[in-house]
Amino acid sequence: MLHSPSVTSRDETVAHLHDLLRRETGGQKKQAGPVRQSATPDLSGVPVHADLRSSFPAGLRLGSVYTLSGSTTVAMGLLAEPTRAGSWCAAVGLPHFGVESAAAWGADLSKLVLVPHPSSQDWVSVVAALTEIADLILTSRPPHVTPGEVERLHARLRIRRTTMVVAGAWPRAAAHIEAVTTGWDGLGQGYGALVRQQLQITVTERHRQRTADLDWPVRA
Amino acid sequence: MTGMTGMSRALPATSTPVRVLALWWPGWSLIAAQEAAGAPADAALAVVAKGIVVACSASAAAEGVTEGLRIRHAQARCPDLQVLLHDPGVEQRAFEPVLRTVEQRAPLVQVIRPGLAAVRAVGLARFYGSEAAAADALAAAVQDEFDHDLRVAVADGLFAAEQSAYTTTGEVPWLQVPPGGSTRFLAGLPVTVLSSTVGDARMPNMLRRMGIRHLGEFAALPRGDVHARFGATGLRAHQLACGEDAPAISPRSVPLDLDVRIVCDPPVGDVEPLVAQCTPAVDRLITALMEHALVCNQIRLTLHTETGLVHERLWRHPWQFTGAELLDRVRWQLDEFSAETSERYDAVTLVTMAPESLESASHHAEGLWGDRPDEHVVRTVTQLQARLGHDAVLSVSVGGGRLLDERRVLRPWGEAVPTSAQRRTDQPWPGSLPGPAPSTVFAQARPAVVLDAEGAVVRVDRRGGLSMPPATLRLGDGPARRITAWAGPWPIHQRWWRNPLTVNRFQIVDDHNEAWLLLAGGEQWWTEARYD
Prior knowledge:
The complex is a heterodimer of chains A (about 220) and B (about 525).
Chain A: H1 10-25, E1 65-70, H2 72-84, E2 88-92, H3 99-104, E3 112-115, H4 123-130, E4 134-140, H5 147-160, E5 163-167, E6 175-187, E7 192-205, E8 208-216
Chain B: H1 2-10, E1 19-24, H2 28-37, E2 45-49, E3 52-56, H3 58-62, H4 71-77, E4 82-85, H5 88-105, E5 110-113, E6 116-120, H6 121-128, H7 131-145, E7 151-156, H8 158-166, E8 174-176, H9 182-187, H10 193-198, H11 202-209, H12 215-220, H13 223-241, E9 260-268, H14 271-291, E10 294-305, E11 310-316, H15 323-341, E12 348-360, H16 375-388, E13 394-398, H17 404-407, E14 408-412, H18 420-423, E15 440-452, E16 470-475, E17 481-494, E18 501-510, E19 515-521, E20 524-531
Parallel strand pairs in B: 2-4, 7-8
Antiparallel strand pairs in B: 1-6, 1-7, 2-3, 5-6, 9-12, 10-11, 10-12, 13-14, 15-16, 15-20, 16-17, 17-18, 18-19, 19-20
């Protein structure tokens, strides 16, 4: 409290401490060493890009698994904000990762680790190892994962508070993101060039649906 | 050499200089040049710098060749004179092994110039019993290995020791000026001896014209007057003439030898035994680096095999190598090597590791808000990389190029990401596409078929014109997709001088609302990337 002498009343102190806690948990880097088991609920999730915030008002839930179908552009957009905030992110099993697309979203590429070709035996252990450092892991679904492995991976993600976004189906996902391209601007019959992608993003979470339209790149 | 000499001269002079033992090899430039040229010792030789003889052999001197002659005059006096060029680098190199021998007997050697070295006499005299015994021991040790004329002298201060070494002769190669006797010894020397030490030949000349022939007369002058007349050079010369000299010598810094050689006897063919053999040596290397507070971020690994093959590779690291990371590099290099040669049983006989680009650890100290990733992140990802292989874990950046796959720069984790100039991002790349970047870029373009409305393959001519508007797209064995919109061509003309690539780019949107980036040349079509 030394640095904020204006905080005097008890309520304000509590609010200030909450704020500090929020910054701590939602924040920058993972703690090395022993895992902090926090009793408080998630105060904030993985931050998302401003243009995706209408689909994820509270960010992505920490320690949960999301499935994504449709657009890879949206997956790139999800990487942008956490890397820019200083968190590490990983892309596993995505050999055709479009680096420039991620850069266009404003992702900090120096905070990105790519494991393009994990073998299907290695996949679970690679993701488990990356939970140590990454706040967000983007991955494609491996050919087969046993229910036991799914269970252990879920526990691991929950403890390390790492969010995983799987392109494809996944048992027991917390939410499903469906990003459908509804149209393209700028291309005609033999003239023009692609300038804008029109997307419709539907997030289904516990029987609730939130649908938002996105034009990427956003119209100025 | 001049730097070292200058450094010793920069030390302040005191009235109680240190006792110095000087070792002098007369005619070192001749010895070095003769060894380098492989000339016989009894030949008539002369070492020449800028057309002037600076040293000559005894047989040339017998014919009348002297130092300071022009080459033509020397050759006139001695027609079979062999002229060798003066090369300070050669002299230094030839002096190096001699110095190492001296250093085995006496630590902290100051090199005044090739052929002249000095050590502190106090410690040596205590160790060997007396100064004479120390000089004997050193001379015997050096002359065991190098059969050159060696003179040894002990005096107070570097200048006096050097001058007393010059007064020795072949018959009496040893001179000891007793402690406190240096001033009296120097008083008898001519003032010209100052010229090489203070680096100014004009002052001794001026002194001689003033009638001052010997250092004793020079030392008798009031110091203030000498300083006022000759400046800092004169002051220094006056101090030396009075027997004052630096209270210490500045020994050379011996370059570190950190190279590691691991000899495998019997030869090792498998990775893990080889790594196990390398482990102790690598640990020693890392400990040595830590002891000297150095950081190594480039290392050259060489594998020698039984069949005589040599595989060399330079490994870089963005921060610094740890022991485990070095062993990983050995592992990967052997993997790479066996993949290249496909001779599975070619066993390794010798591994050498040469650290390159050693830097002081203090330059690499982590800042308060360190600009390198967390220790924890580095460790985790490096462990993952050790398990999966060197190029299985990548870091990414955007580079320059025409093809999209060239524009994504993927580097194995732990290798330094190329700078933006190396990636050529700031250069113009004609033919680059406007609009959003595709989120899926195929590492290898996939073949596709583009048909017109009548089912014939669409042809693209050299100028990018289409035979018919495209109507259907088929990727691999997939179903046909109707093309709803298209545009192009964006021509790519790459490296017309070597491996020319001339293709045209087209953007296509199909009826599934998927957009594709296609490359076309003639009747061949490929998908380069997908917008999705």
